[in-house]
Amino acid sequence: MKETGMSVVITSINNIIAFMAGTLLPIPALKSFCSQTAILLTFNMIAIMVIYPAMIALDLRRRRASRRDMGCCCMGNSVSAKKLRVESLELNMGKQIVGSLSVTGHNVYPGPPPSLLLKNDDDKEKKWYTLGGFLQYYYIPFLTLPLTKLMVIVTCISVLLISCFGLYQSSLGLELSDVLPEGTPPAAFLRAREKYFSFYPMFAVLKGSRINFAKQQEQIEQYRLDIAKSRYVIKVNGRPSEEYWLSMMRTWLSSIQKHLDNAIKKGDINAVTGEMKADTKITDEAKIARRLVCSYGNKYNCTGRISTIKLVNDAGVINADGFYNYLTAWYNIDNMMYYVSQASFYPVPPSWSFTTHEKVVPPALPPAYSQIPFYLIDLIDTPVIVKMIREIRSVCDRYTELGLPNFPSGVAFIFWEQYLSLRS
Q: Structural domain tally of the chain?
């Protein structure tokens, strides 16, 4: 402690002051981090001042007992033991000679070198209010008391137990407002939203061109409904509050199918060949529906399809043969609803417009990226948000294993999903 105590104390105090200065920053997250680190360094300094001398004392006992460093249960060799005993004997003899000389008053040093006496004189000159004097005359003798040893052991065990309990009771994660400077409008807005609204948008993202949207429509719909079973998803009559692109496309196809059925019923469109009567007023919706029925893949044929093929069947499933042709038509004709659906297709369907030329509606490529919107509520703090993320993530992982690659996205997932594995 005489040799390293000053260095340890100064280094620890400098680190503590540096982190305490960090608490002046107006960002709650950094302020919390700096204050907790300063407290940790304070206890670290106390532990070093108390435990370090005890470890040195144990090491001295080991050396006197001639035990090896890494294998303390093994006895050292006789040469090392003899050398240590000789050193101890010389040191004791030096102290005795110096003591006898100081009593008789002689100024001659017959035995050990004069450095021993000079060192002893330097020790006597140390004042009690200096760090060396305090360590020599007060602190080190205090540590050797049996009551002090017992108190240190009990205190360390108590601090360890309290720390474990506090760690278990500590809250998980940070809020969004904690990473913004205090007193700023964004921080005030986020605090108000967390307190009064707790409202977050999210998206279920369907990824990868391996998804066959035409044949996996029912699975996609069930996937959406399973996510909506979460108590945190806003629902209307037991279903998600927001429609998504597949349901909007289905609604649009059903509406133009009705116009086509009416035109066939009136005889304006031939039910077998699909030819339209001249000089008859047929709605644009019926013409578009007719064009879609005749388009499937890269083929265009109306014969035998007009009265037999339905854009959407009674079960609400879109005709799989022309699904991607219908996707192109919906994206271009009902473009406003595409943006309302927040689908964010990538790649987007090809450009197409309805003309009088009888040609196929070009099929779209399967979207490698598309979104299904949801709205979340009652997300009041980090543990609740983590619970929601775990619940929805389990649904997404289950459907990924079933052949529907997907993942959740949104502010709540981007900021808080990192805490899922924090305690695992």
A: 2
